Amino acid sequence: MDHYLLKPKGSKVLLLGNEAIARGALEAGICFAAAYPGTPSTEILEVLAEVADECGINVEWSVNEKTAFEAAYGAAISGVRSLTAMKHVGLNVASDILMSSAYSGVEDGFVVVSADDPSMHSSQNEQDNRWYGLISHIPVVEPSSPRDAYKLTKEAYKLSSKYKVPVILRSTTRISHTRMPIELEDEVFFERKCKGVFRKDYERWVLVPGNARKRKLELMKTWKTVIENEGREPFVSILNPGLKKAIVASGIAYSYVKEALDLMNALDKVTVLKVNLPVPLPVEPVKKVLEYADEVLVVEELDPVVELQLKSIAQTLGYKSRVIGKSVVPENYELSIETLYKPIADFLGSPAMDHWISIGTVKTDPPIPPRPPILCAGCPHRNTFYILRIAANKAGLKNPVFTGDIGCYTLGYQKPFETQSTSFEMGGSIGVAHGLSKSTDNPVIAVIGDSTFFHAGIPPALNVVYNDSNVAIVVLDNLTTAMTGHQPHPGTGVSATGKRTRRILPEKILEAIGYDVTVINPLRVKESVSIVTKAFENYRSGAKIAVVSRMRCALEALRLSRKKNIILPVYHVIEEKCTGCMACIKLTACPALILEPGEKKPRINPEICAGCGLCATICPYNAIEVKNKPSMNWETTWWD
User: Fold this and answer.
1) How far is the C-alpha of 278 from the C-alpha of 88, rounded, in Å?
2) What are the boundaries of each domain within the chain?
């Protein structure tokens, strides 16, 4: 019980919001958890994997969110409490089984964590997944803080078990990645049910149309019962009831509202309806507010999910209260005390109070320069992008279109690489490439990562062969799921809990479905250029070709070298040979290459250099060379 997540009841522990969800799930008695890594949800399964053996629970990274949901749902329908977790766009992948799971229900608690990402800190879009609750008729629980997340996770399991339906727990980046001291209410180690029994019930579990129609009626009965009966704490609470003005705040918006009212000394001047069950919105507490309030301000992050339900309730029951929300509250990006202070002050009729807070951005002199994301020093993708561009040119591919995907390598859209002309969703590089190949005369090269290939790249790769389009596929295999924190996947041969399992190689799958596959080591740049040029020449001739570029993520390689006491090469610029042509900087954009203000020749920061050697390969004057004496076996840290 040394792990902080397993501290005994009564302990006060500083937990990340995601860790608080994991602890709540353990206290609730889960015995199965499955997920696919995706920021901001990743840490939930990571920390569960760390304690899985000690707790005796099953924890696994699945190949995508749909399979993770299905696995956890399989446990839930056999009577074993389970959890699945994913970021907001991940629920799109799992939405098919989500909809059907609502009809069939569960035998014991099943919580689906959807970690939304307002302001798109690490996502291609921002979406409000509370809508999934409305279209699937699955209750949505929304915490206002990490402490709330801990408590409400347990309540979500009770709700799921009570009504035998899945429950969505909607977190956001701000909750998932904020730390808060939490006093633990229950013990983790108690008798948990890890083996269930699946009882055959064809009318319930087999959703042919005749059975589905019956299950829909049962689902709607449950939905209406939740609306009528669950307007209670901790799902809904009313502060200062009976006042003429009321604020309805859902999830993290409540924390901002409370802080703003505190700054205004107005905590007792307005009724506040705290909503942690935004879908479906319970009627009774809303009625209690509308009976007295002439004006209601609805505050929620992103879409007007609560606002629309509240307006519907008010209209249906004949209340004349003026309800406002997204007309004054921002509908895009994360909320904050800065964005909410003025709308709340205006609502209360106290605009003069805005001297309490300084609203605006911090200004510095000189201004802080923008810092766009860049590939790490030594990143294998940098080598591969260079190889692809040179090889495509040598092979005579005119105006090639590189379709991109979701991962670190999405940064390939930037100069000098420009090897990602599109990026939409997981697996989209190959799927979109097929359509472009059918619709244009451009050579089309689909670039996809190893984890993403397993997640959603195999079906479109099959489609390319089946429907016979001319698409070249490049799999960037850095031997991990790098973007989300180096989680394992089927190509690593390691499970979520660190156990050895069967390793599945992308090239074997591609070969099996009809591709001529070449595997390169991009650490060896010149050799790889020659190999890929030949592959692209075959592609021009109509062959189905794929390239797997395998080189370990630089961060993992550095960790491995330290662990094994392997010295990696460190490069430096020979000033006498350097002409200041800047080819090394212009063609690699490596952060280890530095050009000081006023200087005409670059230098290499030895603290950052990872020893990949790309700059030395590119330099036309051989002005870059190894400065130290690396270990004989240093390449083994990069190639597996």
Assistant:
1) 17
2) 4-229, 236-356, 380-551, 566-637
